[in-house]
Structures are given as C-alpha cells and as structure tokens.
Amino acid sequence: MYVSTQGKVPARRDAGIPPVRAESDRMAVGIGFLSVAHMHSHGYAAGLRRLPEVEIRGVWDDDADRARSFAESLGVRVFESPGALVAECDGLIVTSENLRHVEMVEHAALAGKPVLCEKPLVASETDARRLEQVLRKSNIPLMTAFPCRYASAFGALRRRYQAGELGKALAVCATNHGTCPFGWFVDPSKSGGGAMIDHVVHVADLLWVLLGEEPASVFAQTGNRMYGQTWEDTAMLTLGYPSGLFATIDSSWSRPETFKTWGDVTMTIVCERGVLEMDMFAQEIGHYRKGGTTYGVAFYGSDMDAGLVEDFVRVVRGETPPPIPTEDGLRAAKIALAGYRSVAEGRPVAP
User: Fold this and answer.
1) Residues 173-190: tens digit of each pLDDT
2) In a 3-state reduction of DSSP, which class is residue 121?
3) Could you tell me whether strands 234-240 and 142-145 are parallel, antiparallel, or unpaired per DSSP bridges?
4) Among 96, 91, 159, 99, which Cα is nearest to 312's?
5) Burial 332-344 (b: 16+ CB within 10 A, else e)
6) Number of domains in the chain
7) From the CB of residue 44, how many other CB atoms can be counted at a distance below 10 Å?
8) 300: how many CB neighbours lie within 10 A of its CB?
9) Are residues 136 and 193 in the same domain?
10) Distance between CA atoms of residues 216 and 327, nearest Å
11) pTM value?
C-alpha cells in the first residue's frame, strides 16, 4: 500500500524550489502490460499513446497469439516472461483474467513497481487475503481501474449532490448492464463468477465516492434465464446502509449483442428535496442512413480511460499517491463477493 506523507514536504538540500522542466525534457515513463486478456487493455493503451511522456515498453501474456496481436497493433515487444517485462518498466498495467490479478500484481510487487490493476481487484476471499500479504511485504502503489470515476456525467452528479441543495440521499437505484462478453468471463475458474463479479464493482465504487458510507448488509439474487448456462447472467443486489439509506444495483448481462454500446451505467438518487438522475454514456449523436444498418451512434464527451491512465502515470512518477487506492478496490470487490454469499445463504449478509 502507498504510504502517504500526509502533507509533509521532504526537505531539499538547497531548501529551494526546483526549476520547472519542459515536458520534452522529462524522462519517458515506461509502462508494460501484464496480460491483455481483458478487452479494457486496448482502451488503456490508446490513452497511454496520447501521452507524449509515456512509452509502452511491451506485453507479456501466456496466450502467445493474444500477446502477438496486441503487440503488433502497438508496434511493441512481446516479452518471454513476466519478470523480463517488469524489469524493463517503471509501472505495470494488469489486465489478466480476474483470478490471476493477484499473481500478476505480485510479479510487479517483487520488483517494487507501481501497478494499475483491472477490476475487480480480487475475485475471491482467498485472493483478498493473499493480496494483503503481498502488499504488507512490498508497499507498492496499487491503483484499481475504476474509469467510471472519470466520467464527466458522474463528476457533475457528484458535485450537484454534494452541494446539498436536494438534501440527503434516501435511496439509490443504479444499473451497470452489459452485453455478455463470453470467453473466459463465463468460466468461473478464471473469472470468479459471472455478471455479478463483473459489473457490481463499478457502481459499488461510485456509491462509495458519492456517499462516503459503507453498506452494512448485502442481499443478492441471481439468475441464468438469459442464456440458460451454469453461470449467472442476471444479478440484482440491495445494499443496506447504517444511515437507513438503501441502494439497488442491477449488474445483468441483459443487453443484446446489437445494443448501441457495450452497456450502461445509470444512477437515480432519491433525495429529501428532489431526485438526481445520471445516464453516464448518454453523450452521443444518433444518425440514420439509407441501406444497411439504419441507425448508428457517434459518441463524444469524456474519455474515462484516458483520465484513468493519466493519473496512473502521475503515480508512477511519484507525483501523487494512487487516487483510487487499494482499500477502495477491495471495498468494492468485497461487496460483490458478499453477493455470492448472500445467494448461497438466501439472506442478507455483511460485506
């Protein structure tokens, strides 16, 4: 975990202010990808390529074809082992299968390198304990990939709510629907579950940022009627808070493959004196054409991935502690994991 100086400024030998360096004079920050199993790796790479001070050093993946395809798209090197990649980088991005996150983080931790890890930070209680052990030994900066924090729509919602005009929140109804990603996402031995482990954590994290309150109970129900397989494709959670507030999260893979985007993130906050509503991805222009596909969408607005990786580069440079610290990643993951315990026991459980 990152150790904060809590505002204490370390003394400099000259007790003066260091000269401002031109951007072109700054040493390039080398970033590597430890597995690119998750599709978000492409968005993070695109964000990094827009930063002139960043060099993507390469990729390691146990799937040779996947590594080669990713490397060729960026013109970077494929490394033969995780350790070889880590040695050549200043910071690492982990976009592996969920149940390999801790393994990948440990490779970087052994070398003392900062990490941006894809969500969920952990996908089992065992992994949570193992990660805590790894971080006790290494103390590396570990940032969880929650790009939704960087959406302009959520920023506006947060500012409006925290201004206090509408009073305290009484209830929240939130969704993070998606199309089913299939592949390893529907193999619990690699993902840790189905729709619930995949999509609960985004909204759980936004609720923490917005409310600053942790739920005292989690009640979950799941189903598999969309695809009829052994993994859950639908999931609904109800979170109960000590203040009396309750929130629901629908994390279902319920959008068809023809849906205009991969899914949604929405939030309705019922307050004492009004209601706030957010549709995070309603930043679009619809267009119609003759023949073929009759409707299309052109998206505009905030690039969440770009904001996320830009902050991570600042962490790697040592300019700031992780704005999304380990504790936040674990907090959100434990809500999803509590959902599975709730389903197994048929009752609300503590996260």
Assistant:
1) 999 999 999 999 999 999
2) coil
3) unpaired
4) 91
5) bbbbbbbbbbbbe
6) 2
7) 25
8) 8
9) no
10) 17
11) 0.89
Interaxial angle between packed helices 326-345 and 195-211, expressed in degrees from 0 to 180 and rounded to the nearest 10? 130
Q: What is the pLDDT of residue 50?
A: 96
C-alpha to C-alpha distance for 186 and 197, rounded to whole angstroms: 11
* Among the listed residues 110, 117, 115, the one whose alpha carbon sits nearest the alpha carbon of residue 137: 110
Extract the tokens encoding 291: 């023949």
Per-residue pLDDT tens digits for 257-282? 888 778 899 999 999 999 999 999 88
Least Cα distance to 31 among 113, 110, 111 occurs for 113
Bridge partner residues of 56 (DSSP): 31
CB count in 10 Å sphere of residue 262 = 13
Provide the domain limits for residue 162.
149-302+334-345
| Secondary structure of residue 232 in the 3-state scheme | coil
Give which of 316, 311, 324 is closest to 86, Cα–Cα.
316
Output the CA angle 123-157-298, nearest 5 degrees.
Answer: 80
CATH number of domain containing 218:
3.30.360.10
**pLDDT tens sequence across 17-49:** 333 334 445 689 999 999 999 999 999 999 999
- Token couple for 43: 């968005």
Rounded to whole angstroms, the Cα distance separating 307 from 148 reads 10
Dmax of the chain from CA atoms? 70
